[in-house]
Amino acid sequence: MFRHLLATAALAALTATGAQAQDNKLKIGVLATLEGALTTLGEDAVRGLQVAVKQAGGKIAGKEVELIIVPTNASPDSALRGVRKLVEQDKVPIVIGPVSGSEGIALRDYSKTQPGVTFLNGSSGALETTFVTPSENFFRFNMNGAQWLAGLGEYLYKDKGYKKIVTLAEDYSFPYTQIMGLATEYCRLGGQITERLWVPLGTKDFASIIAKLPDDVDAIYLGLGGGDAVNFFNQYAQAGGKAKLVGGSIMVDQTVLSSKGAAKRLAIGVPSAGPQADTWDDPKWQAWVKAYQDAFPADKRFPIPSLTGTAYYNAFNALNQAMTKINGDLSDGHKKLRETLAALELDAPNGKIKLDKNRQAIGTNFVYEIVEAPNGDLVSKMVKLVPNVSQNLGFDDATFQRIGLPSRTSPECKKSY
Fold first, then answer.
1. pTM of full prediction above 0.85
2. Structural domain span for residue 161
């Protein structure tokens, strides 16, 4: 009997200690593309998150951060499998992710079935994620793909003198959104998009599509990313391609510019736009770059953090600031956390970010060209900064609604919307 009481007491003490340890932890589920064509984007997303956690001392509002990272392959199905594991098995109260556009749409829909969980987008950039039936517990502190091309259309038309272009992009929601941002600006000025060519995400052989590229245009816009972008550069160089190129935001990001081989040098001089510029001289940006570089050996990172690294870094910091303000209070269905996130203005390294009524980022965009740094690295050099880019791209609400959702054929290329 005495032994039984001792055993019971010991078990109770262990249980209490375990419960106390759990109470002092904050589990955060993370989705990142660590498989498939966009693997390099997911790997740097994790690096950006790790830097943010390290800077926070491994804690949020006094609780030890426990990251549970689940890999995806950029498909909505993989994102859903991953988030179900995180929420329904691991019981995380907060999710950060995903990386890719169509994954984000899937997560928005799933978040509506999990009102007790708060979701912070990683880097996914499809318009629909926050514009169509937005979710009250889904917050996006990065601009979408259309916002990421703000200023590029004008730069191409007025500064580069490109009056006619053709587009080649991966056939899913994020490239659709990017081309929307390009077309609504470029075409209003009088630019023409003569043809839109599409390839599946994960394309390895570009020979047939390269053969179809017309030579009667001023430039080719490339909306490819990760392994697809590298494969295209390699095969276009082998084919002797000489056309002037324009890059989508992840076509000439560090995830591609840091790849092996000489073909990436085709990117030198290529204009593009996105939420950061590698050589920006802003002190806050330079401090973030140094923190990233110092956190990893040179052969285990990019020379400059990629846009996914920065986006995940920002998402964690937004969460950290909001949780600190409310002293980690997740009661009442995360009510205080969500109110604080919605009102937060994040002083991020790539510019100040605030959220609109759909919990979508309004931020700063950068138009840039790819240059060779003195040490031989390829980097983006800012030529123009575009502040306060909103989701409706400067259109009034009625006009933006009338333009319609981005697709293979929408929006049309025309001077008036």
1. yes
2. 147-279+364-403
